[in-house]
Automatic annotation (TrEMBL), chain A:
Residues 4-179 form the Transketolase-like pyrimidine-binding domain. Gene3D superfamilies: 3.40.50.920, 3.40.50.970. The lineage of its organism: Bacteria, Pseudomonadati, Pseudomonadota, Gammaproteobacteria, Cellvibrionales. Pfam families: Transket_pyr (PF02779), Transketolase_C (PF02780). The keyword Secreted does not apply. This is Alpha-ketoacid dehydrogenase subunit beta. SUPFAM superfamilies: Thiamin diphosphate-binding fold (THDP-binding) (SSF52518), TK C-terminal domain-like (SSF52922). Its EC number is 1.2.4.-. Its cofactor is thiamine diphosphate. The keyword Cell inner membrane does not apply. GO terms for molecular function: oxidoreductase activity. Keywords: Oxidoreductase, Thiamine pyrophosphate. It comes from Microbulbifer halophilus.
TrEMBL record, chain B:
Its EC number is 1.2.4.1. Residues 43-331 form the Dehydrogenase E1 component domain. This is Pyruvate dehydrogenase E1 component subunit alpha. It comes from Microbulbifer halophilus. Pfam families: E1_dh. It catalyses: N(6)-[(R)-lipoyl]-L-lysyl-[protein] + pyruvate + H(+) = N(6)-[(R)-S(8)-acetyldihydrolipoyl]-L-lysyl-[protein] + CO2. It is an enzyme of class 1 (oxidoreductase). The pyruvate dehydrogenase complex catalyzes the overall conversion of pyruvate to acetyl-CoA and CO(2). It contains multiple copies of three enzymatic components: pyruvate dehydrogenase (E1), dihydrolipoamide acetyltransferase (E2) and lipoamide dehydrogenase (E3).
Length: 331, 366
């Protein structure tokens, strides 16, 4: 079996569901003949027709809004935004309608929509092309927010997202779209939403990250291992609803935890994870949970983006601070 | 200065449709549907909408209803639109909608429940596929476009009979991007969708003249390449005729239509508003002379199909219906607190169990 990249796994999942369910439609700007700006929909229009894989006019509010009407009538739209930084015109439709239609209609209508967007920095893109504002969506009741971090998880989680009866914001870490290859059988097997994935076992510290940052987080774990530190690496994958109990299980074992994300720190998902660890596992902690994140700045133009994105050095230093903490020692 | 030579590449006209003038005289031969029975039925529904609005405002004033947006003076638009649709068509309403909802079979009790802070009012037991009332401005126009995509797709792929999406909005909504984006897509994809604009001259306190420099709202269709027309929105015959024609064209695969229905908001924006703060003196009184109910009643009377006795009998019958519905609304049990969790997702995610259970215990659900 050929090994495929994360973006190819996205294509494979889309094709699988387009083939399996005639209610599934793919829509977005340039998703047709062009195959999407990152080629995530490459070949799909040719295979399934322009009625199933639709190029839309250039209007993100429209893309977000018609998906609501399509879903209310039983279709399962998979809508692509070209970059996360261009979702914002669609926020009103996603937050005020997609996330609420089931509740507003007391369950008689629902929104089985997937809103896909490439997200995150690190590809030397122009301004607005490198955003990671997943916390905006994770704050909203009624939504699911999913971030895959490998080809296999991209395939399995996207299948689950498309089959889910509720709206899912599916954020694809474009920095690792083609970073690694993996055998991903096209077996139609979905992965569970709302469940963490443990990517590495270890007993000394829990490292939590998602999306592209896992690449550096896993590298940091490797470096820590050279010094005899066992890191357990957890990928929540579904950021909302959050499977906090799998995180707590790990923290119970390690007593120490570091959260890594490239989004800005204030109000980021790291804050929520720290708060929930405090809720459920304060007594188990041997050190305060720390964060290594993007700064509370505007995402810089690409010449400076590597200063902004958490790198292995910052993650290792963050882990060291957690590991070296001792009660009463002050700072 | 030399004036460059140019040639005309596009031109357009906007037509205005009216059957009954302000005095209730037929200004042209009426359409075939305008039989005495049908006109009496339209009159009845407008009268019922007016009674519901009147009572809703009174319920609000006495603390028994939340904020309420009356349709006073605009009954012909909702009733005309609703009566032009098949029950299988899909309505995507905005929030000022009493007449249309009644036509769609929504219970008065449900309408009152919505504004009485009870989400169960949105269940629309007799219009289960219609979208719930939509409060954010113009967003429902995109939902209608999406519904249109689905209806066209299901017709082509699943052999469903062609149904039509109909949406409504106010004049202020036509300043929003959602409006243009919906019209634009509907034009490009030739969607079975009809967009009805209630131009009641006011978006809360902003007058139509401060909303757009466009001579008509109907002409906003031109940029989207779809038909646009203006109707006398106080003439229920004109509204119904225009919407019915647009719906049938959409059903035949001939694409979308924008209809601007000219009317006047004879009431405050909502019960939370006081139009006295901004409405020019005399405007309300002038507008009252054009209102839709008296106009149709005059026509029916002059044609010998209506009289004082019929009016008295109708008012008695409608009052009875209203009392029954208000009573049903007033005696509704309160929604269970934990219901706020029950329709968030198809299945409650584990992450929410704890919050749900906490509320359920507080609300005595367990």
């Amino acid at each position: 079996m050929a090994e495929i990249t994360l973006v190819e796994a996205v294509t494979q999942a889309l094709a699988h569901e387009l083939d399996a369910d005639e209610r599934v439609l793919v829509l977005g700007q340039d998703v047709g003949a062009n195959g999407g700006v990152f080629r995530a929909t490459d070949g799909l229009q040719e295979r399934f027709g322009a009625d199933r894989v639709r190029d839309t006019p250039l209007a993100e509010t429209m893309i977000a809004g018609i998906a609501v009407g399509m879903a209310a009538q039983g279709l399962k739209p998979v809508a692509e935004f070209q970059f996360m930084g261009f979702i914002y015109p669609g926020l009103d439709q996603i937050l005020s309608h997609a996330a609420r239609l089931r509740n507003r209609s007391r369950g008689r209508l629902c929104c089985p929509i997937v809103y896909r967007a490439p997200y995150g920095g690190g590809i030397r893109a122009p301004e607005h092309h490198s955003e990671s504002t997943e916390a905006l969506f994770a704050h909203i009741p009624g939504l699911r927010v999913v971030v895959p971090s490998s080809p296999a998880r991209a395939y399995g989680l996207l299948l689950a997202a498309i089959r889910d009866p509720d709206p899912v914001v599916f954020l694809e870490p474009k920095r690792i779209y083609r970073a690694a290859r993996q055998e991903v059988p096209d077996d139609g097997e979905a992965l569970p939403l709302d469940r963490c994935f443990r990517l590495r076992e270890g007993g000394d510290i829990t490292l939590i990250s998602w999306g592209a940052s896992l690449k550096e987080t896993l590298a940091a774990a490797e470096q820590l291992a050279e010094d005899g530190v066992g890191s357990e690496v957890i990928d929540p994958a579904t950021l909302k609803p959050l499977d906090i109990h799998s995180i707590i299980d790990s923290v119970e074992k390690t007593g120490r935890c570091l959260v890594v994300h490239e989004a800005a720190r204030t109000g980021g998902l790291g804050a929520e994870i720290v708060a929930q660890i405090n809720d459920y596992a304060f007594d188990l902690l041997r050190a305060p949970v720390q964060r290594v994140t993007g700064y509370d700045t505007v995402m810089p133009y690409y010449q400076l983006e590597n200063y902004y994105l958490p790198d292995v050095e910052r993650i290792v230093a963050g882990a060291r601070a957690v590991l070296d903490y001792s009660h009463g020692g002050g700072r | 200065m030399h004036k460059p030579r140019m040639h005309l590449v596009a031109s357009f006209d906007i037509a205005h449709l009216q059957y009954l003038d302000e005095q209730g005289r037929a200004s042209q031969e009426l359409p075939d549907f305008a039989t005495p029975d049908t006109l009496q039925a339209l009159y009845r529904q407008m009268a019922l909408a007016r009674l519901v609005d009147d009572r809703a405002v009174k319920l609000q004033r006495t603390g028994r209803l939340g904020t309420y947006p009356s349709t006073l003076g605009q009954e012909a638009i909702g009733v005309g639109t609703g009566s032009a649709m098949d029950s299988a068509d899909i309505y995507c309403p905005y929030y000022r909608e009493t007449g249309a909802l009644l036509e769609r079979g929504v219970d008065i009790e449900e309408i009152l429940a919505i504004w009485g802070g009870d989400e169960r009012g949105q269940c629309f037991q007799h219009a289960p596929e219609d979208l719930p009332l939509c409060v954010p401005i113009a967003t429902q126009l995109l939902h209608a476009a999406g519904v249109g995509v689905a209806l066209k797709y299901k017709n082509e792929h699943f052999d469903e009979p062609q149904r039509v999406a109909v949406a409504s909005a106010g004049d202020g909504a036509t300043s929003r991007g959602d409006f243009y984006e919906a019209l634009n897509l509907a034009g490009v994809w030739q969607l079975p969708a009809v967009f009805v604009i209630n131009n009641n001259q006011w978006a809360i306190s902003v007058a139509r003249s401060d909303q757009t420099a466009s001579q008509t709202i109907a002409q906003k269709a031109v940029a989207a390449g779809i038909p646009g027309l203006q109707v006398d929105g106080n003439d229920v015959i004109a509204v119904r005729a225009a919407v019915a024609d647009a719906v049938e064209r959409a059903r035949r695969g001939e694409g979308p239509t924008l209809i601007e229905a000219l009317s006047y908001r004879l009431c405050d924006h909502t019960t939370a508003d006081d139009a006295g703060r901004y409405r020019p003196a005399g405007e309300l009184e002038r507008a009252q002379k054009r209102e839709p109910l008296a106009r149709l009643a005059h026509y029916l009377e002059s044609a010998g199909h209506w009289n004082e006795d019929a009016e008295t009998e109708l008012q008695r019958e409608l009052a009875e219906i209203l009392e029954r519905e208000v009573k049903a609304y007033s005696s509704r049990s309160k929604d269970r607190p934990a219901a706020m969790f029950e329709h968030l997702y198809a299945e409650l995610p584990e992450a929410l169990y704890e919050q749900h259970d906490e509320l359920a215990e507080r609300g005595g659900d367990r």
